[in-house]
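Structural prep section.
Before we set up the soaks we want a predicted structure of the protein with succinic acid in place, mainly to decide which crystallisation condition to try first. Input record follows.
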Amino acid sequence: MQSLINPQLLKTKSYINGQWHNSQDKFEVLNPATNTMLAEVENATTDDLEIAIAAAKNALPSWSAKSANERASLMLKWFDLMMEHQSDLAKIITLEQGKPLAESTGEIGYGAAFIEWFAHEGKRAYGDIIPTPSSDKRVLVIKQPVGVVASVTPWNFPNAMITRKAAAALGAGCTFVSRPSEKTPLSALAMAHLADLAGIPDGVFNVVIGTDAIGMGKILTEHPDIAKFTFTGSTQVGKKLISQCASSVKKVSMELGGNAPFIVFNDADIDAAVEGAIASKYRNSGQTCVCSNRLFVHRDISEQFTQKLIQRVKLLKQGNGLDKETTLGPMIDERAIENVHNLVTQSIKMGATLLTGGKHSGNYYQATVLSNVTNDMPIAAQEIFGPVAPIIIFDDEDEVLRLANDTQYGLAAYCYTNNFGRVWRMSEKLEFGMVGINEGIISNPAAPFGGVKQSGTGREGSKYGLDDYMQIKYVCIGGI
Ligand code: SIN
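Run finished without errors. Recording the tokens verbatim:
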């Protein structure tokens, strides 16, 4: 492990009930930039997970009984510590996940901002008094924490995908058991160390690191003491987890796959659209659920847009994320490279044209642009999760809306236009949970992040994100 300013942030054991928990077995965490070992982490078992769930259950009464202000002051200490250690935390992300240091630094700011946001939002969990049909009764609505929350989170945002769930849970008064991806456990454990320093009480925030994804997923979705299960990952796995949650009727939030259209009309600012496409497509080497997956470009401007995009893509500097000049890091592993390459080669066989990129070496896949793509080619029909931009030409608004919506997914969509009426029409008719108009980066803690159709259910961030961790209780007062 590269030197950290504060070596205390490097933890290699699960954090359960405020303790660093010993496990017998160990596994290796790799640096995707070099495929070399970064650290050996203790491999928690499903028994260890049960201990964490019991700890979260035990901590629930006192944490939920605290006032929102008391919870907020502890959470804000946690936020301050994350920002104080931003550069070390960012380095840990780059080392275990691969993204360029500037993006990792951004992720820490983004991840920590959820803690700050929900520390305050917890104070605004307002109820209601509803006028009643009979004058001798009163109808009250109060919001209460749902209980123990369990999460399973992916490797693409090792910090922010945890905080945007955990912060909402803690702000609402719930306790939390996190099972992060075993590919990126170090960020989660560093966060746990800072939660500990901030004084978050034992058992309120637990991080269990283990390679038994299926066994742990089963417990977290079926355990009777867990009231809510929250997941970010693929639609395929999400469907299975939802069905497992059915046995104990858990509240679920699912942030699943996407197939984002990025639509550029002939009235758009083309330079802005190119910059938006670069940001939304190549961020994290294309490994985000909201990355644009299909670039729909109006025929009138397709040549101009494509040439400008290629010029801009060629300026991306691929390399180890620790190098300051790097703007495109490695992908997470060989399997990810293979998946992307299969989509590219199959689509070329079906008639797509390779304009730039298309080669790979180690875990690095070149920034790639394809033209002559149609919506039914694998590169457009499936979630790419890699640095490939497929360009599809369209002629009119109705056609592009039909094509854009022709997917099982409904997470994010992007549209570049300077026509005011079209801004409204597209915003309303795109069947996606989030729409960026003349903007390629839409995520922030104040906004409700989430999808429709098979991209999931529930919202993270914003005032709506807190509701996913609360239940509504109706109280009827009679005899007035
Ligand atoms: C994701 O890929 O699921 C998250 C991306 C984001 O928060 O912007």
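Observations: Residues 156-157, 232, 255, 288-290, 443 surround succinic acid (CB under 6 Å).
Flagged for discussion at group meeting.
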